[in-house]
Amino acid sequence: MKKIIILFLLLAQFGQGQAQSVRGLYRVSGSRYGGSTVAGVASNTVTITVTYASPPVSPSATFAPLKYNKLAWFQYERDDLLSGTWTDYVFFNGGTAADGKTYPGKTFTDGCGNKVNWRGSVVANARSNFNNLDFWGTTGRLTTQQVATMIKVGKWGILNHGYYHELATTNNFYPPWSATFSQAGWDIAENQKFTYTKLKSLDVEYLMRCVVVPTNYPGFTRGADSLKYLGSTSTNSLDGYDGIPRFFDLNTANNGGNFAQDETMPVTGYSKFNNAGFVQYTRNFQDSWTTSIVNTLKAQFVDLLAKSNANKHLGMRLGTHTGTYPEMSNFFNYADSVAADRVWFVGMTEQLEYREVKRLAQKIQFVNGNRLIIRIDLSAVPDVTRFRDMSLLITGGQITHVTVSGVDSFSYDTVTGLVNLFTEKTKGFPAPQ
Question: Which keywords belong to this entry (predicted)?
Fold first, then answer.
């Protein structure tokens, strides 16, 4: 399920302030923090052993509402496999963009002293409606190698935008429809197979688990739900589902309706196909990046933080086709400056997979002397889940150190009691049919 990772530093080194690479993107330093890569292969049974300075009093281990125990989340994506997404990636991850400009990258911390780069999503179609030409690598579109790098290095996600972007009335390439499989359903399923095959050619396995409705066409939200996707997103095409958030004003700040709330997002009773956990997100989609629009986005981001608290974890979503720099960097730099390490900058799929793992994980705990042992059974998590990460909040007394088995890597803070568990599935996905 994962690459075998060798344990190359002892935990004791962290107590001495040594540095360690965790999942290739992190640096740990300072005596309050700890963590490590883990020898062996990750499994469906995760064991966490928390050692206290003395026998713990009423210890507990609960899942943090958001990964890394952040206050709020922010998601960004650019549609249509456009090459501008590579500039977004370089801006987030650091490096030199196609225009020759070099960016330092954007980071937050995992709450345990380790830096994490911002992550976003590629929104991908397969072929042109008008000549059936393969989009990947054509002028103005991302190459297969770029998308593979974004997945492997940047931990970005891919969102399914349909095999073709437009409906069948615009071309003659669609197959005949059957009563049992809608046009939108065909678009979603064929794009999954196409994208999987593209990336598999570079030894990258990836299954898309979220849909971006192309234009405002009906059927894609229902199609995503019926095909057991985690979620779908659109500005205004919802197929009769209540959008999350239900109201979205693209151009108004401080209206209180622009944000999804983690605590009130549905688990059951929302899907029309018994697909527990499915959500239909709305999003702020901007192709005008005037000073006025950028200032409105800034005000909305401030509102996101102002309305979030320990019992109300809010999320904001943003998409574009034509966003350019420096207009977008103006907004992103501002968001970074006011976030103050309180915001989880994450792709849609990764955020929904965290909710999925929390919902399906089975956890038990017991005390043995001055140790709390927590065992988590992940056998109910689907084999299509890529990020099997968990963040736990541990109480019960002064923590001295933590050890973990059954994951790729972990990090912890002995002061706050935050323990992050990281496992990314990269191989062994079922090939789409």
Answer: Signal
Question: CA 211, CA 11: separation in Å to the nearest integer?
Answer: 41
Q: Residue 242 corresponds to which amino acid?
A: D
Q: What gap in Å lies between CA 232 and CA 216, rounded to an integer?
A: 12
Per-residue pLDDT of the chain (433 residues; tens, 9 = 90+): 444 333 333 333 333 222 333 443 344 445 799 998 887 667 899 999 999 999 999 999 999 999 999 999 999 999 999 999 999 999 999 999 988 999 999 999 999 999 999 999 999 999 998 889 999 999 999 999 999 999 999 999 999 999 999 877 667 787 766 544 588 999 999 999 999 999 999 999 999 999 999 998 999 999 999 999 999 999 888 999 999 986 555 555 545 467 999 999 999 999 999 999 999 999 989 999 999 999 999 999 999 999 999 999 999 999 999 999 999 999 999 999 999 999 999 999 999 999 999 999 999 999 999 999 999 999 999 999 999 999 999 999 999 999 999 999 999 999 999 999 999 999 999 999 8
Region for residue 225 given its phi and psi (left: phi exceeds 0; alpha: psi -120 to 50; beta: otherwise): alpha
In the chain, % helix, strand, coil (3-state, to 5) comes to 25, 25, 50
